[in-house]
């Protein structure tokens, strides 16, 4: 563990999220980057699915406001990688904050992707989602196998939530949730 109580593994995962959020690749996350990320996720929903698009957008905007409120330089509305990682540890993963940011995104995402309405994601739904977000099917297919803990061929809301909590909160390098965004060795 580092001085802040974080682990190298968590830092690695948060660095990957930062890179994903930094839509223009300039080394800073801004509201524009978060809006673009939100639109990528909203595009996963059907055109008429305003409820789930709105939930995801609300989650991303909550996340952005958590980042803004915790930044050191209150005059700047951009956040660099080191500060992003610091804020993730100090603020975003706190239980009350995690739910208003990531929880809203997940609720909207699962609602949008569960096309057959059975309360879980099939491998096709899961792999299709990540393919549209730029993660190759081979990677997300392997992740699906790891996240489908009971081997049912579906990822339940509970399994998806467990994966999220492990991804953002766990320091266990063997936690299946580490595969949420692909193999850990692919993370930078």
Description:
With 188 residues, this protein is mainly α. It has two domains: 103 residues, EF-hand (Recoverin, domain 1), CATH 1.10.238.10; 72 residues, EF-hand (Recoverin, domain 1, Orthogonal Bundle). Helix content is 60%, strand content 6%. It contains eight helices and four strands; from the N terminus they run H-E-H-H-E-H-H-E-H-H-E-H. Strands 1-2 form a two-stranded antiparallel ribbon. Helix 2 packs antiparallel against helix 3 and helix 3 packs antiparallel against helix 5. The longest helix has 21 residues. The protein is globular, with a radius of gyration of 16 Å. The N terminus is likely disordered.
Summed over residues and divided by their number, the pLDDT gives a mean of 88
> Which word captures the global form?
globular
Helix content: 55-70%
Q: What number of domains?
A: 2
Strand order in the largest sheet: 1-2
CATH architecture classification of the largest domain: Orthogonal Bundle
Count of alpha/pi helices: 8
Round the Cα radius of gyration to an integer and report it: 16 Å
How do the helices and strands follow one another from N- to C-terminus? HEHHEHHEHHEH
Uncertain runs: 1-5
CATH-level-4 superfamily name of the largest domain = EF-hand
N/C terminus separation:
18 Å
């Amino acid at each position: 563990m580092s001085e802040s109580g974080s682990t190298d593994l968590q830092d690695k995962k948060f660095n990957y999220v930062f890179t994903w959020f930094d839509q223009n690749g300039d080394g800073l996350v801004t509201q524009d980057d978060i809006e673009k990320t939100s639109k990528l996720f909203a595009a996963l929903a059907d055109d008429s699915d305003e409820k789930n698009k709105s939930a995801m957008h609300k989650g991303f905007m909550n996340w952005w406001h958590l980042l803004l409120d915790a930044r050191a330089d209150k005059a700047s509305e951009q956040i660099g990688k080191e500060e992003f990682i610091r804020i993730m540890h100090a603020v975003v993963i706190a239980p009350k904050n995690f739910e208003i940011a990531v929880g809203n995104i997940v609720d909207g995402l699962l609602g949008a992707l569960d096309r057959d309405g059975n309360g879980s994601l099939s491998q096709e739904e899961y792999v299709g989602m990540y393919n549209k977000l730029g993660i190759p099917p081979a990677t997300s297919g392997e992740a699906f196998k790891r996240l489908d803990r009971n081997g049912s061929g579906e990822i339940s809301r509970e399994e998806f939530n467990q994966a999220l909590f492990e991804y953002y909160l766990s320091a266990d390098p063997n936690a299946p949730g580490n595969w949420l965004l692909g193999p850990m060795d692919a993370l930078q």
